[in-house]
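SAMPLE LOG
Freezer: B-3
Tube label: C17
Construct: single chain, 544 aa
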Amino acid sequence: MTNNSSSVTNAEDVLVSVNRPERTEGDRPSKAIDPNEKHLCTDHLLGDLRGRTISGAFITIASQGTQFLLNLASIMVMARLLTPRDFGFYAMVTTVTGFLWMFQDAGLSTATVQRQQITHAQVSNLYWVNVGVGGITTLLVAALSPVVAWFYREPRLVAITLVLSGTFLLASATVQHLALLNRQMRFGLIAMIYIVSLLAGYLTGVGMALLGYGYWALVGASVTQVAIRLVLAWLISGWRPKLPSRNTQTWHMLTFGANITAGSLIYSLARGADNLLIGRLFGAAAVGLYSRASILLIRPLEQFTIPINAVLIPALSRLQAEPERYRRTFLRVYEALALTSFLSTGLLLALARPLTLVVLGPRWEQAAPIFAGFSIAALCIPLGGASTWLFQTQGRGRDWLFFTLLGSCITVASFVAGLPFGPAGVAISYSVGGLFIGVPTLFYFAGREGPVTTADLWGGIFRYLPLWIVVCGVTWLVHLLFLSSAPLVQLVVCAPVGLLAGAILIYLVPSMRRVALSLVDILRELKSRTSFPNADGRFPGVAA
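STRUCTURE (predicted):
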């Protein structure tokens, strides 16, 4: 993905700040420097923020591509080893735990990344707050396990909830280590942590499924993944927290984190209401179908946006004092995101059935109309997620809280409206409500302050909506000719034709062609760099 354009001037070059201890006459340090402080300084990143961002984006996109393939392989294998009922049990519990999952972070990772200047004492205090909140959440979820089983009328959920409750404490102890790696834009190390932990979790899950553990395979995969991530983050980061201390001016960051957490909690409660209602009214098999269809769409979109999110939040946070450069950077990425996401997601509605059958298998055909309903949301999820960067990188916690309150009301109302029509009705209602009510609300609040305006955000929708329409329309027409063919054949034939139609439109429209060419320039720049840093931690061709 693109970031700053080549028009960024040499005036942004800055000297690398290096902290050195004062020397005495005998060339011995008179005052020891805490080795943990080296994890906090970001002055050296500004010297070539464009180069570091591009290299980081390349690494993170490669990482997310790998994670996507691992996820896809896991979904395909586990869907054939387990039943919709097994997935339903797991989804019932994770819907409830998902309401509280943001407490493992408490918004404090964003506070660490976004802060211009931060001290070791402040990060240590945030670490202990994370651990404390994670421990309390673990106890709360464990205490709620009988309530979860009672609500769903399924006693087997007690044990599942008790085991999964421990993941809150494990994940909380990892937050600040990963945040510091992100703050330093050390994306290669972050990628390794996530890929290795993900692979370990999936191998554990597949192994347990083959041994006949049923839904416990999903639980085992989740716990293993979080535990391995904790161990790797501590070993690789090198940062170690000190004991909590007073007078560290941590309160502002805690307030910012509290606003982010409150907003995330409200959104999580709203977004998880669908699984909760479907599980209560239609049972485990229905929620299993619904959750798999949701993940089949949402997870690839997340894998697509996570690398951009991971790179842009620290980069934009470093540009808060330069409004014009901030706006230019955001919009270039935003337009590139619109181009690529509308091009790719245009296939989803037309190919919903064959895609579902190829990935999940023939016994999951009932999930196809649910996936088709969700595919409408693919229009707004990537650009909506990008708009939230404005809240996070500008420290606008209160605006984020207020928007999520309104957005959550819209989401819950859409679920209730679609519930009489079954799981597919819920998916369609959610997508339509988000597209026509949720997105306009988000764009209004995100663009009413700061360098990026609401009009800027709408521009990304209206300029690239024709691309989605062309790709979806052409794919649909070709798909009608191959309805009697095998699902895999439909995918192999129809998807390339739809993408080709989109590519032709991009070539014919100057604004789209300009963005596409900028992406080509980025790829050429990446080709001129190696994928591995030098001994000093920089990539060849990247200035200090």
